[in-house]
Amino acid sequence: MYHRAYGVTENSPPVETLNLAYEVAYHRYGLDVARDWKRKLGQSVPDKWTTVASQMAKPPIVGGLYAQYEGLNSTWWEDPKLNADPRSLNMLQGVLPDTPAVDPEISRKTADKIWEIWPDTKIRGWGRPVLSINSARIGNPERAVYHLTAYEYWIFDDAGFAVRGGDGGTPPPFMPGT
After folding, report:
1. Which of 74, 139, 146, 147 would bridge 63 by S-S if both were Cys, CB 3.0 to 4.6 A apart?
2. Phi, psi angles (nearest 5°) of residue 44
3. Total-model pTM
4. Which range of residues forms the domain containing residue 35?
């Protein structure tokens, strides 16, 4: 089953984008939850749901790391147009609960790669809480705390509120995450 859409970070062209990693994993997770609830309610699970779940694409993997979407090769990590906001890959293990669609070891390796290529100066809005949650889930508590306390990269007004677009139109820190 193929899935074409805008990605959660809204930086992928939907006509050219196939099987976005986070989106296919989230869809699989949702389908698995729905199937579990049917069973808990003593209802039969529609055969079609099971068929779809078994045939769904998995998040694409390139060179042992998750890729934003199918069709990319390992050079996408060096392309600023493609790697400018890789947070959705951290969301695989940072927002989604455990799901058969996501391999925790590949998530850990992918998070380490994102740590290398996504500098503090580029992380904005809800990126830091997502990175923090992912870091905690992959067993890196020091990095989790760091992402929530890197205040020098956020701009605050006199009342202590984050300034929306403080550096050029980006969202402020997501305060429930801080």
Report:
1. 74
2. -80, 145
3. 0.83
4. 1-84
